[in-house]
């Protein structure tokens, strides 16, 4: 018999942008939503388990479109002392923390083998649904080149046989390595089209990879019905990526009017990752002996431009999907991106949509996820507090009392005595 769960007396924010449903009921049958609406409109079968939400917010599971599970903080010394096998196992608690924060779907933006995604799908380890890019395509000396001044190549996140080395120069190398990354199970091809903060041989403003090189990766990905995302911080690197046909610009620190117009014209998404430079700056201030000075300096230097570019993109109506670059900072703090998006120009409802429906659209998952609608997968979170009045409530994992992934409880802080929400205030 298919299990049934009813969440009643909830304030339902369904991800569509519509007004919340006060005193709402969400009915889940098996792994899918079977009804949603006002409590006086939804009939609850007698066999259903009932949760009284006592007015708490119920939302779609959040989607983070830019994480790195094989990384956490820019600690070069620690990386040198960590065997690849240990690095792989360290992803397990990071995925758990991400899920506990209410993030039920992620796109891993480089360094994580496809086998990690498969382990989650097979129930070997707990974690969010995943799309993976596996490697990062980078030119020699570019943002994804792990070669340090000491002449040691640390790689992106440790060296694994099923994570192809992504350093490429010229169209034919791009073609071959893109095919290797797709063979390794990538859902996305990630390109570094500009320099970055956490690289040693470039500046965030520098342009990397030619338009032809980027377009070759876009073509090869499309041949296998996949798409490309671009680490693009500098203005020309952003424009080159858009011209070549990428689906999303990651970071977008130095947007100008022309770049914004290009994004609007081609429907390219911005994944802003506002948390990332702030996390690096905070960590480098706490550990000045660990973070290479050039990385700390670059992080501090980009923050103002990063915020201003995000504000301009929001005002212009650029499509925005939530992404955090978790791995640069701490996993499990993903939802702190929403208060930052609100601080710099979005309404609370817009930040929620960027983290649900719009993120699902970017990942081509919106037929199954991103909103609380009949027939969709029951990825659902219950959050203590009124997130539309205080979006910071969603940024604290302690406020996320229930996480359902496909109708199954991935996190449950509800009372064992009252299957339900007794004690939630």
From TrEMBL:
One of its GO terms (molecular function) is hydrolase activity, acting on carbon-nitrogen (but not peptide) bonds. Keywords: Hydrolase. The keyword Hydrolase applies. Pfam families: Amidohydro_1. It comes from the Bacteria. Residues 58-408 form the Amidohydrolase-related domain. This is Amidohydrolase family protein. It comes from Ktedonosporobacter rubrisoli. The lineage of its organism: Bacteria, Bacillati, Chloroflexota, Ktedonobacteria, Ktedonobacterales.
């Amino acid at each position: 018999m298919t299990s049934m769960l009813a969440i009643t007396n909830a304030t339902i924010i369904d991800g569509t942008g519509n007004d919340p449903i006060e005193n709402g009921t969400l009915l889940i049958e098996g792994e899918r939503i079977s009804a949603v609406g006002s409590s006086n409109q939804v009939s609850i079968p007698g066999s259903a388990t009932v949760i009284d939400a006592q007015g708490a917010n119920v939302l779609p599971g959040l989607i983070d479109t830019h994480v790195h599970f094989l990384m956490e903080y820019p600690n070069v010394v620690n990386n040198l002392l960590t065997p690849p096998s240990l690095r792989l196992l360290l992803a397990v608690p990071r995925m758990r923390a991400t899920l506990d924060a209410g993030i039920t779907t992620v796109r891993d933006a480089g360094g994580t083998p496809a086998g990690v995604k498969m382990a989650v799908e097979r129930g070997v380890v707990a974690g969010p649904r995943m799309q993976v890019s596996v490697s990062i395509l980078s030119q020699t000396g570019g943002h994804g080149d792990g070669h340090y001044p000491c002449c040691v190549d640390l790689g992106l996140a440790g060296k694994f046989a099923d994570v192809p080395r992504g350093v490429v120069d010229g169209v034919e190398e791009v073609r071959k390595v893109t095919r290797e990354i797709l063979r390794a199970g990538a859902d996305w091809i990630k390109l570094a089209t500009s320099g970055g903060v956490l690289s040693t041989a470039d500046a965030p403003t520098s342009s990397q990879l030619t338009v032809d090189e980027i377009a070759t990766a876009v073509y090869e990905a499309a041949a296998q019905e996949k798409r490309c995302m671009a680490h693009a911080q500098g203005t020309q690197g952003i424009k080159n990526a858009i011209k070549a046909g990428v689906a999303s610009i990651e970071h977008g620190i130095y947007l100008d009017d022309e770049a914004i117009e290009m994004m609007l014209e081609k429907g390219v998404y911005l994944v802003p990752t506002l948390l990332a430079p702030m996390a690096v700056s905070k960590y480098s201030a706490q550990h000045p002996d660990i973070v290479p000075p050039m990385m700390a300096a670059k992080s501090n230097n980009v923050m103002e431009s990063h915020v201003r570019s995000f504000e301009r993109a929001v005002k212009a109506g650029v499509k925005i999907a939530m992404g955090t670059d978790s791995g640069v900072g701490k996993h499990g703090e993903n939802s702190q991106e929403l208060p930052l998006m609100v601080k710099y120009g979005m309404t609370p409802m817009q930040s929620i949509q960027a983290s649900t429906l719009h993120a699902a659209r970017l990942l081509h998952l919106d037929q199954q996820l991103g909103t609380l609608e009949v027939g969709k997968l029951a990825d659902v979170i219950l959050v203590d507090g009124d997130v539309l009045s205080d979006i910071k409530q969603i940024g604290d994992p302690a406020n996320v009392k229930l996480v359902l992934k496909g109708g199954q409880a991935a996190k449950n802080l509800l009372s064992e005595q009252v299957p339900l929400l007794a004690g939630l205030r």
